[in-house]
Amino acid sequence: MKKVTIVVGLGLIGGSIARAIKEGHPESTIIGVDLNEASGKQALKLGIIDLFEKELNAVAPKADVVIFATPVQQTTRLMNNLEPSKLKSSLVVTDTGSTKKEIMQQSKSLAAQGITFIGGHPMAGSHKSGVLASDARLFENAYYLLTPNPASNKHVQFLKELLIKTNAKFLVVTPDEHDQMTGMLSHLPHIIAAGLVNQTDAFIKKYPMASRLAAGGFRDITRIASSDPAMWTDILLTNRAVLIEELENWQTQMAKISSWLGEGEGNREEIFDFFAQAKETRDHLPIHKEGAIPAFFDLFIDIPDYSGVVANVTALLADKNISLINLKILETREDINGILQVTFKSKQDLEQAKRCIQAGSDYVCYEK
Ligand SMILES: NC(=O)c1ccc[n+]([C@@H]2O[C@H](COP(=O)([O-])OP(=O)(O)OC[C@H]3O[C@@H](n4cnc5c(N)ncnc54)[C@H](O)[C@@H]3O)[C@@H](O)[C@H]2O)c1
Ligand SMILES: O=C(O)C(=O)C[C@]1(C(=O)O)C=C[C@@H](O)C=C1
After folding, report:
1. If you measure from the C-alpha of residue 224 to the centroid of ligand 2, how many angstroms do you get, rounded to a whole number?
2. 284 CA to centre of ligand 2 in angstroms
3. Residue 192 shares a structural domain with residue 260
4. Is the CB of residue 134 below 6 angstroms from any atom belonging to ligand 1?
5. Rounded to an integer, what distance in angstroms lies between the CA atom of residue 170 and that of residue 247?
6. Predicted TM-score (pTM) of this structure
7. Percent helix / strand / coil, the chain, rounded to 5
8. Which of 150, 173, 196 is the C-terminal boundary of a domain?
9. What is the CB-side half-sphere exposure of residue 111 using CA atoms within 13 A?
10. Tell me: the pLDDT tens digits for 284-305?
11. Which residues constitute the domain of residue 252?
12. Which residue from 224, 231, 243 has its CB within 8 A of the most atoms of ligand 2, so it is best to mutate?
Protein backbone atom coordinates (compact mmCIF):
# COMPACT_ATOMS: atom_id res chain seq x y z
CA MET A 1 0.00 0.00 0.00
CA LYS A 2 1.92 3.03 -1.28
CA LYS A 3 0.03 5.61 0.76
CA VAL A 4 0.98 8.67 2.80
CA THR A 5 -0.27 8.38 6.37
CA ILE A 6 -0.07 11.25 8.83
CA VAL A 7 -0.04 10.25 12.48
CA VAL A 8 -0.91 13.23 14.67
CA GLY A 9 0.34 12.71 18.24
CA LEU A 10 3.48 10.63 18.52
CA GLY A 11 2.78 9.17 21.94
CA LEU A 12 2.01 5.68 23.22
CA ILE A 13 -0.91 5.10 20.83
CA GLY A 14 0.31 7.10 17.80
CA GLY A 15 3.75 5.50 18.11
CA SER A 16 2.29 2.00 18.40
CA ILE A 17 0.02 2.54 15.38
CA ALA A 18 2.86 4.00 13.29
CA ARG A 19 5.01 0.97 14.16
CA ALA A 20 2.24 -1.44 13.12
CA ILE A 21 1.66 0.42 9.82
CA LYS A 22 5.41 0.40 9.05
CA GLU A 23 5.49 -3.32 9.74
CA GLY A 24 2.48 -4.10 7.53
CA HIS A 25 3.19 -1.59 4.76
CA PRO A 26 6.92 -0.81 4.63
CA GLU A 27 6.46 0.91 1.25
CA SER A 28 4.10 3.54 2.70
CA THR A 29 5.26 6.93 3.97
CA ILE A 30 4.47 7.98 7.52
CA ILE A 31 4.58 11.64 8.48
CA GLY A 32 4.54 12.29 12.21
CA VAL A 33 2.98 15.47 13.61
CA ASP A 34 3.37 16.50 17.24
CA LEU A 35 3.51 19.73 19.22
CA ASN A 36 6.47 18.31 21.01
CA GLU A 37 9.60 18.36 18.89
CA ALA A 38 11.40 15.90 21.18
CA SER A 39 8.75 13.24 20.43
CA GLY A 40 9.26 13.85 16.71
CA LYS A 41 13.03 13.44 17.03
CA GLN A 42 12.62 10.24 19.04
CA ALA A 43 10.14 8.81 16.51
CA LEU A 44 12.52 9.59 13.63
CA LYS A 45 15.42 8.01 15.50
CA LEU A 46 13.37 4.88 16.20
CA GLY A 47 12.48 4.67 12.49
CA ILE A 48 8.75 4.82 13.30
CA ILE A 49 8.13 7.79 10.97
CA ASP A 50 9.77 9.03 7.76
CA LEU A 51 9.23 12.76 8.26
CA PHE A 52 8.34 15.05 11.14
CA GLU A 53 6.28 18.23 11.06
CA LYS A 54 4.91 20.38 13.89
CA GLU A 55 2.01 21.90 11.99
CA LEU A 56 -0.66 19.50 10.67
CA ASN A 57 -2.01 21.84 7.99
CA ALA A 58 1.48 22.18 6.48
CA VAL A 59 1.45 18.49 5.47
CA ALA A 60 -2.24 17.50 5.43
CA PRO A 61 -2.66 18.08 1.64
CA LYS A 62 -0.18 15.24 0.99
CA ALA A 63 -2.12 12.72 3.07
CA ASP A 64 -4.14 9.69 1.99
CA VAL A 65 -4.87 8.93 5.64
CA VAL A 66 -4.79 11.07 8.80
CA ILE A 67 -4.81 9.27 12.16
CA PHE A 68 -5.35 11.41 15.26
CA ALA A 69 -3.71 9.97 18.36
CA THR A 70 -4.00 13.08 20.51
CA PRO A 71 -6.07 13.67 23.68
CA VAL A 72 -9.77 13.71 22.75
CA GLN A 73 -10.37 17.45 23.03
CA GLN A 74 -7.15 18.22 21.11
CA THR A 75 -8.45 15.91 18.38
CA THR A 76 -11.77 17.76 18.04
CA ARG A 77 -9.86 21.06 17.92
CA LEU A 78 -7.43 19.77 15.28
CA MET A 79 -10.29 18.30 13.22
CA ASN A 80 -12.00 21.66 13.32
CA ASN A 81 -8.82 23.37 12.06
CA LEU A 82 -8.42 21.13 9.00
CA GLU A 83 -8.84 22.93 5.68
CA PRO A 84 -10.99 20.49 3.63
CA SER A 85 -10.58 22.39 0.36
CA LYS A 86 -6.83 21.69 0.47
CA LEU A 87 -7.17 17.95 1.21
CA LYS A 88 -7.26 15.01 -1.21
CA SER A 89 -10.89 14.11 -1.95
CA SER A 90 -10.05 10.44 -1.23
CA LEU A 91 -8.62 11.25 2.21
CA VAL A 92 -9.65 8.94 5.08
CA VAL A 93 -9.50 10.44 8.57
CA THR A 94 -9.66 8.40 11.76
CA ASP A 95 -8.83 8.83 15.44
CA THR A 96 -7.95 6.70 18.45
CA GLY A 97 -9.74 8.63 21.19
CA SER A 98 -11.20 6.95 24.25
CA THR A 99 -14.63 8.59 23.79
CA LYS A 100 -16.56 8.75 20.56
CA LYS A 101 -19.76 10.83 20.77
CA GLU A 102 -18.15 14.29 20.70
CA ILE A 103 -15.62 13.30 18.05
CA MET A 104 -18.36 11.83 15.84
CA GLN A 105 -20.37 15.02 16.30
CA GLN A 106 -17.35 17.07 15.23
CA SER A 107 -16.79 14.79 12.23
CA LYS A 108 -20.16 15.81 10.77
CA SER A 109 -18.77 19.11 9.52
CA LEU A 110 -15.89 17.23 7.81
CA ALA A 111 -18.37 14.75 6.30
CA ALA A 112 -20.45 17.67 5.02
CA GLN A 113 -17.37 18.77 3.10
CA GLY A 114 -16.83 15.33 1.60
CA ILE A 115 -14.16 14.05 4.00
CA THR A 116 -14.42 10.42 5.09
CA PHE A 117 -14.22 9.98 8.86
CA ILE A 118 -14.13 6.67 10.75
CA GLY A 119 -14.01 6.90 14.51
CA GLY A 120 -11.57 4.44 16.05
CA HIS A 121 -10.54 3.27 19.50
CA PRO A 122 -8.07 0.47 20.18
CA MET A 123 -9.12 -1.07 23.51
CA ALA A 124 -5.63 -1.63 24.83
CA GLY A 125 -3.11 0.71 26.31
CA SER A 126 -1.05 1.43 29.33
CA HIS A 127 -0.58 3.89 32.17
CA LYS A 128 2.64 4.84 30.36
CA SER A 129 2.71 7.69 27.85
CA GLY A 130 5.02 8.81 25.09
CA VAL A 131 6.61 7.36 22.01
CA LEU A 132 9.28 5.45 23.95
CA ALA A 133 6.55 3.29 25.51
CA SER A 134 5.02 2.49 22.09
CA ASP A 135 4.95 -1.06 20.84
CA ALA A 136 3.66 -2.58 17.57
CA ARG A 137 2.27 -5.50 19.64
CA LEU A 138 0.27 -3.26 21.97
CA PHE A 139 -3.08 -4.01 20.30
CA GLU A 140 -2.52 -7.69 19.59
CA ASN A 141 -5.79 -9.64 20.16
CA ALA A 142 -7.43 -6.54 21.62
CA TYR A 143 -10.74 -5.18 20.34
CA TYR A 144 -10.39 -2.15 18.09
CA LEU A 145 -13.74 -0.35 18.11
CA LEU A 146 -14.85 1.51 14.97
CA THR A 147 -17.64 4.09 14.68
CA PRO A 148 -17.87 4.93 10.97
CA ASN A 149 -20.07 7.70 9.63
CA PRO A 150 -22.75 6.04 7.46
CA ALA A 151 -21.13 7.48 4.33
CA SER A 152 -17.73 6.07 5.41
CA ASN A 153 -18.75 2.41 5.67
CA LYS A 154 -17.15 1.53 2.35
CA HIS A 155 -13.75 2.71 3.64
CA VAL A 156 -13.77 0.53 6.76
CA GLN A 157 -12.10 -2.37 4.93
CA PHE A 158 -9.33 -0.05 3.70
CA LEU A 159 -8.65 1.10 7.27
CA LYS A 160 -8.61 -2.48 8.59
CA GLU A 161 -6.10 -3.36 5.87
CA LEU A 162 -3.89 -0.40 6.79
CA LEU A 163 -3.95 -1.49 10.45
CA ILE A 164 -3.63 -5.20 9.70
CA LYS A 165 -0.42 -5.62 11.69
CA THR A 166 -1.99 -4.33 14.87
CA ASN A 167 -3.48 -7.86 14.91
CA ALA A 168 -6.48 -6.33 16.65
CA LYS A 169 -10.07 -7.56 16.36
CA PHE A 170 -12.16 -4.84 14.72
CA LEU A 171 -15.70 -4.29 15.87
CA VAL A 172 -18.20 -1.70 14.59
CA VAL A 173 -20.37 -0.08 17.29
CA THR A 174 -22.44 3.10 17.54
CA PRO A 175 -20.85 6.10 19.31
CA ASP A 176 -23.49 5.82 22.03
CA GLU A 177 -22.81 2.11 22.64
CA HIS A 178 -19.12 2.92 22.63
CA ASP A 179 -19.29 5.61 25.31
CA GLN A 180 -21.65 3.59 27.50
CA MET A 181 -19.41 0.50 27.42
CA THR A 182 -16.07 2.27 27.84
CA GLY A 183 -17.60 4.48 30.53
CA MET A 184 -18.36 1.39 32.60
CA LEU A 185 -15.31 -0.73 31.81
CA SER A 186 -12.55 1.83 31.43
CA HIS A 187 -13.46 5.33 32.59
CA LEU A 188 -15.19 4.47 35.89
CA PRO A 189 -12.29 2.14 36.92
CA HIS A 190 -9.82 4.99 36.29
CA ILE A 191 -11.87 7.36 38.46
CA ILE A 192 -12.05 4.76 41.23
CA ALA A 193 -8.30 4.04 41.06
CA ALA A 194 -7.42 7.73 41.22
CA GLY A 195 -9.89 8.34 44.05
CA LEU A 196 -8.46 5.47 46.04
CA VAL A 197 -4.90 6.76 45.63
CA ASN A 198 -5.95 10.28 46.64
CA GLN A 199 -7.74 8.91 49.71
CA THR A 200 -4.61 6.92 50.56
CA ASP A 201 -2.45 10.02 50.19
CA ALA A 202 -4.46 11.83 52.85
CA PHE A 203 -4.32 8.75 55.06
CA ILE A 204 -0.54 8.42 54.73
CA LYS A 205 -0.10 11.93 56.08
CA LYS A 206 -1.66 10.62 59.30
CA TYR A 207 0.07 7.21 59.24
CA PRO A 208 3.36 7.67 57.30
CA MET A 209 4.36 4.03 57.83
CA ALA A 210 1.31 2.87 55.82
CA SER A 211 2.96 3.76 52.51
CA ARG A 212 5.35 0.85 53.01
CA LEU A 213 2.48 -1.60 53.37
CA ALA A 214 0.97 -1.06 49.91
CA ALA A 215 1.22 -4.59 48.57
CA GLY A 216 -0.29 -6.64 45.70
CA GLY A 217 -3.94 -5.69 46.17
CA PHE A 218 -3.26 -1.98 46.21
CA ARG A 219 -0.81 -2.28 43.33
CA ASP A 220 -3.27 -4.23 41.13
CA ILE A 221 -6.20 -1.89 41.63
CA THR A 222 -4.21 1.37 41.37
CA ARG A 223 -1.74 0.82 38.48
CA ILE A 224 -3.96 2.88 36.18
CA ALA A 225 -3.85 5.82 38.60
CA SER A 226 -0.40 6.50 37.10
CA SER A 227 -2.00 7.36 33.74
CA ASP A 228 -1.66 10.78 32.12
CA PRO A 229 -3.92 13.36 33.87
CA ALA A 230 -4.35 15.51 30.72
CA MET A 231 -5.63 12.54 28.74
CA TRP A 232 -8.06 11.52 31.49
CA THR A 233 -9.40 15.04 32.00
CA ASP A 234 -10.42 15.08 28.32
CA ILE A 235 -11.96 11.61 28.58
CA LEU A 236 -14.10 12.49 31.60
CA LEU A 237 -15.24 15.80 30.15
CA THR A 238 -16.36 14.11 26.93
CA ASN A 239 -18.34 11.33 28.63
CA ARG A 240 -20.05 13.27 31.40
CA ALA A 241 -23.63 11.94 31.29
CA VAL A 242 -22.57 8.28 31.26
CA LEU A 243 -20.08 8.80 34.08
CA ILE A 244 -22.49 10.76 36.27
CA GLU A 245 -24.93 7.84 36.02
CA GLU A 246 -22.30 5.17 36.72
CA LEU A 247 -20.89 7.17 39.65
CA GLU A 248 -24.38 7.27 41.15
CA ASN A 249 -24.64 3.48 40.78
CA TRP A 250 -21.23 3.16 42.39
CA GLN A 251 -22.21 5.37 45.31
CA THR A 252 -25.40 3.34 45.84
CA GLN A 253 -23.32 0.18 46.00
CA MET A 254 -20.82 1.66 48.46
CA ALA A 255 -23.63 3.05 50.63
CA LYS A 256 -25.13 -0.45 50.80
CA ILE A 257 -21.87 -1.94 52.07
CA SER A 258 -21.52 0.84 54.58
CA SER A 259 -24.99 0.16 55.95
CA TRP A 260 -24.35 -3.61 56.15
CA LEU A 261 -21.22 -2.90 58.15
CA GLY A 262 -23.13 -0.53 60.41
CA GLU A 263 -25.48 -3.37 61.33
CA GLY A 264 -22.60 -5.85 61.79
CA GLU A 265 -22.83 -9.69 62.08
CA GLY A 266 -26.51 -9.76 61.09
CA ASN A 267 -25.39 -8.93 57.53
CA ARG A 268 -22.68 -11.59 57.22
CA GLU A 269 -24.57 -13.29 54.39
CA GLU A 270 -25.01 -10.07 52.38
CA ILE A 271 -21.32 -9.26 52.71
CA PHE A 272 -20.36 -12.81 51.72
CA ASP A 273 -22.67 -12.65 48.67
CA PHE A 274 -21.20 -9.31 47.61
CA PHE A 275 -17.73 -10.88 47.33
CA ALA A 276 -19.01 -14.23 46.00
CA GLN A 277 -20.90 -12.56 43.16
CA ALA A 278 -17.89 -10.43 42.25
CA LYS A 279 -15.59 -13.47 42.24
CA GLU A 280 -17.99 -15.43 40.01
CA THR A 281 -18.25 -12.55 37.51
CA ARG A 282 -14.52 -11.68 37.51
CA ASP A 283 -13.50 -15.33 37.11
CA HIS A 284 -15.62 -15.60 33.96
CA LEU A 285 -14.76 -12.30 32.28
CA PRO A 286 -12.70 -12.78 29.12
CA ILE A 287 -10.14 -10.17 30.17
CA HIS A 288 -7.64 -9.25 27.48
CA LYS A 289 -4.19 -10.21 28.67
CA GLU A 290 -1.98 -10.65 25.65
CA GLY A 291 -0.30 -7.93 23.68
CA ALA A 292 -0.60 -5.09 26.16
CA ILE A 293 2.59 -3.38 27.20
CA PRO A 294 2.74 -4.76 30.72
CA ALA A 295 3.02 -8.24 29.18
CA PHE A 296 6.29 -8.47 31.01
CA PHE A 297 7.10 -11.30 33.34
CA ASP A 298 7.92 -10.47 36.94
CA LEU A 299 9.87 -12.69 39.27
CA PHE A 300 9.80 -11.79 42.96
CA ILE A 301 12.69 -12.79 45.19
CA ASP A 302 12.72 -12.58 48.96
CA ILE A 303 16.15 -11.29 49.76
CA PRO A 304 17.90 -10.88 53.07
CA ASP A 305 18.42 -7.21 53.68
CA TYR A 306 22.13 -6.88 53.16
CA SER A 307 24.14 -5.07 50.55
CA GLY A 308 25.55 -7.14 47.73
CA VAL A 309 22.47 -9.25 47.25
CA VAL A 310 21.37 -7.42 44.11
CA ALA A 311 24.85 -7.92 42.69
CA ASN A 312 24.60 -11.65 43.55
CA VAL A 313 21.33 -12.03 41.66
CA THR A 314 22.52 -10.08 38.61
CA ALA A 315 25.78 -12.07 38.58
CA LEU A 316 23.84 -15.36 38.61
CA LEU A 317 21.72 -14.16 35.68
CA ALA A 318 24.68 -12.77 33.74
CA ASP A 319 26.49 -16.07 34.18
CA LYS A 320 23.67 -17.80 32.27
CA ASN A 321 23.25 -14.94 29.77
CA ILE A 322 19.70 -14.22 30.90
CA SER A 323 18.75 -10.63 30.15
CA LEU A 324 16.38 -8.71 32.34
CA ILE A 325 14.32 -5.61 31.56
CA ASN A 326 14.06 -4.05 34.98
CA LEU A 327 15.08 -4.59 38.56
CA LYS A 328 13.44 -2.96 41.56
CA ILE A 329 13.62 -3.35 45.34
CA LEU A 330 10.03 -3.25 46.53
CA GLU A 331 10.53 -3.29 50.25
CA THR A 332 13.46 -3.00 52.61
CA ARG A 333 13.01 -2.97 56.31
CA GLU A 334 15.50 -3.91 58.95
CA ASP A 335 13.24 -6.52 60.51
CA ILE A 336 12.14 -8.47 57.43
CA ASN A 337 13.45 -9.60 54.07
CA GLY A 338 13.28 -7.21 51.16
CA ILE A 339 11.56 -8.15 47.90
CA LEU A 340 13.44 -7.83 44.67
CA GLN A 341 11.25 -7.55 41.56
CA VAL A 342 13.09 -8.68 38.43
CA THR A 343 11.28 -8.22 35.12
CA PHE A 344 11.86 -10.36 32.03
CA LYS A 345 10.66 -10.10 28.44
CA SER A 346 9.48 -13.71 28.20
CA LYS A 347 8.13 -16.53 30.34
CA GLN A 348 11.08 -18.71 29.27
CA ASP A 349 13.59 -16.11 30.54
CA LEU A 350 11.68 -15.91 33.81
CA GLU A 351 11.64 -19.68 34.30
CA GLN A 352 15.32 -20.04 33.43
CA ALA A 353 16.16 -17.21 35.85
CA LYS A 354 14.12 -18.81 38.62
CA ARG A 355 15.96 -22.12 38.18
CA CYS A 356 19.38 -20.49 38.13
CA ILE A 357 18.74 -18.27 41.17
CA GLN A 358 17.37 -21.20 43.15
CA ALA A 359 20.37 -23.36 42.17
CA GLY A 360 22.93 -20.66 42.99
CA SER A 361 21.47 -19.24 46.22
CA ASP A 362 18.99 -19.93 48.98
CA TYR A 363 16.74 -17.00 48.00
CA VAL A 364 13.03 -17.82 47.69
CA CYS A 365 11.68 -16.97 44.21
CA TYR A 366 8.05 -16.78 43.19
CA GLU A 367 5.62 -15.34 40.63
CA LYS A 368 2.40 -13.50 41.50
N1 LIG B 1 -3.10 5.43 26.83
C2 LIG B 1 -4.01 4.51 26.60
O3 LIG B 1 -4.09 3.50 27.30
C4 LIG B 1 -4.98 4.70 25.46
C5 LIG B 1 -5.58 3.56 24.89
C6 LIG B 1 -6.44 3.74 23.80
C7 LIG B 1 -6.72 5.02 23.32
N8 LIG B 1 -6.13 6.09 23.92
C9 LIG B 1 -6.41 7.42 23.34
O10 LIG B 1 -5.37 7.69 22.41
C11 LIG B 1 -5.05 9.08 22.40
C12 LIG B 1 -3.56 9.27 22.66
O13 LIG B 1 -3.22 8.74 23.93
P14 LIG B 1 -1.71 8.36 24.29
O15 LIG B 1 -1.80 7.43 25.46
O16 LIG B 1 -0.96 7.95 23.09
O17 LIG B 1 -1.18 9.75 24.81
P18 LIG B 1 0.35 10.26 24.85
O19 LIG B 1 0.37 11.33 25.89
O20 LIG B 1 1.28 9.12 24.99
O21 LIG B 1 0.54 10.92 23.41
C22 LIG B 1 -0.18 12.04 22.98
C23 LIG B 1 0.72 12.81 22.05
O24 LIG B 1 -0.06 13.85 21.44
C25 LIG B 1 0.72 15.03 21.38
N26 LIG B 1 -0.19 16.16 21.29
C27 LIG B 1 -1.02 16.66 22.23
N28 LIG B 1 -1.72 17.69 21.74
C29 LIG B 1 -1.31 17.85 20.46
C30 LIG B 1 -1.67 18.75 19.42
N31 LIG B 1 -2.59 19.71 19.60
N32 LIG B 1 -1.04 18.63 18.23
C33 LIG B 1 -0.10 17.68 18.02
N34 LIG B 1 0.27 16.81 18.97
C35 LIG B 1 -0.34 16.89 20.17
C36 LIG B 1 1.54 15.00 22.67
O37 LIG B 1 2.68 15.83 22.57
C38 LIG B 1 1.89 13.51 22.76
O39 LIG B 1 3.09 13.21 22.10
C40 LIG B 1 -5.98 9.73 23.41
O41 LIG B 1 -7.09 10.27 22.75
C42 LIG B 1 -6.43 8.60 24.31
O43 LIG B 1 -7.71 8.84 24.82
C44 LIG B 1 -5.26 5.96 24.94
O1 LIG C 1 -4.07 -0.76 30.52
C2 LIG C 1 -4.21 0.42 30.82
O3 LIG C 1 -3.40 1.03 31.47
C4 LIG C 1 -5.41 1.14 30.35
O5 LIG C 1 -5.90 1.91 31.10
C6 LIG C 1 -5.91 0.92 29.00
C7 LIG C 1 -7.30 1.47 28.71
C8 LIG C 1 -8.32 0.76 29.63
O9 LIG C 1 -9.00 1.40 30.41
O10 LIG C 1 -8.41 -0.44 29.53
C11 LIG C 1 -7.33 2.94 28.92
C12 LIG C 1 -7.91 3.78 28.08
C13 LIG C 1 -8.26 3.40 26.74
O14 LIG C 1 -9.12 4.19 26.10
C15 LIG C 1 -8.25 1.98 26.47
C16 LIG C 1 -7.64 1.13 27.32
Report:
1. 8
2. 20
3. yes
4. no
5. 29
6. 0.82
7. 55, 20, 25
8. 173
9. 16
10. 888 765 444 455 678 888 877 6
11. 178-264
12. 224
CATH code of the domain in which 124 resides: 3.40.50.720
The answer as to whether 228 is a domain residue is: yes
Can you tell me which atom of ligand 2 is nearest the CA of 187? Answer: 9
- 3-state SS assignment for residue 333: strand
127 burial (CB, 10 Å; 0-12 / 13-18 / 19+) is middle
pLDDT per residue as tens digits for the range 242-285: 999 999 999 999 999 999 999 999 999 999 999 999 999 998 88
Give the tens place of pLDDT for each residue, 311-368.
Answer: 889 999 999 999 888 887 765 554 556 778 888 878 888 999 999 999 998 888 888 6
Residue 135 and residue 19 in contact, taking contact as beta carbons nearer than 8 Å: yes
CA–centroid distance, 125 to ligand 2, in Å, is 5
In 10 A of CB 230, how many CB atoms?
12
CATH number of the CATH domain containing 347: 3.30.70.260
Question: Looking at residue 292, what is its pLDDT?
Answer: 43
Q: Whose CA is nearest to atom 14 of ligand 2?
A: 98
Nearest CA to ligand 2 atom 11: 125
